[in-house]
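Friendly challenge for the regulars: who can give me the structure tokens for this chain first? No prize, just bragging rights.
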Amino acid sequence: MPTSSVPDQESIQVEHRGAVLHLRLNRPAKRNALSDALVGRLQAAVADLPEGTRAVVLSGAGEHFSAGLDLGELGERSVAEGVMHSRMWHAAFEAIEFGRVPVISVLHGAVVGGGLELASATHIRIAERSAFYGLPEGQRGLFVGGGGSARIPRLIGAARMADMMLTGRVYDAVEGLAIGLSQYLVDDGAGLAKAFELAAKVAANAPLSNFAVIHALPRIADMGRSEGLFTESLMAAIAQGDDAAKSRMRAFLEGKANKVNRS
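First reply, four minutes later:
Bragging rights claimed.
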């Protein structure tokens, strides 16, 4: 059972479940459109996690995860203002991707524009069958500004992303799973249960190992082969030298740890 549930006046609900922190976007009347205030508070929430937090679950209230940028805030920005606005989003989503702990997102309904950019910054994505994905910026005379051009092609390839932006193509949840927009697909209403199940597994890992996965893995993927393998060696040595890793290996060798299985 949750130990606390605190509604945030600027559109985020925070819930503590032991080692797992649940952050819920809470603007259902606006399909959880991402206002600057919401993005800022999301950044603050992941940057200042309560002591003992080992994983984060991110979801959206109502019928949608997020329909993207709150267009009501777009206004008549100058080029310079547009650059600074985009960089603010970059900082917030970087805080998710390269934060202290892994983030698992639950996707349902609209996962569109900035909502898809936000989802792509999380480490594990669980889609309910109602989820659909779109990048309508091309039809609105815009371009992605929340880091989508760097993250989404890693998931689905640049050609698929270009198709979505140029033609308005929308993928449903089944298609999204097939092309890599999510790693899991569950029935409607089952996303949170699956997220907390996975979060419990993630939270049980050695913290340094989790940190290495979310920080080193994407950076190694950007490196040349030689540099990447050397960085891998450094991370492997650091991880296995950690006291938590040593105790886990002793438990495994002594038959006290679970073997790999299909569950």
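Residues 1-9 have pLDDT under 50 and may be disordered. The first helix runs from residue 36 to 47. Your move, everyone else.
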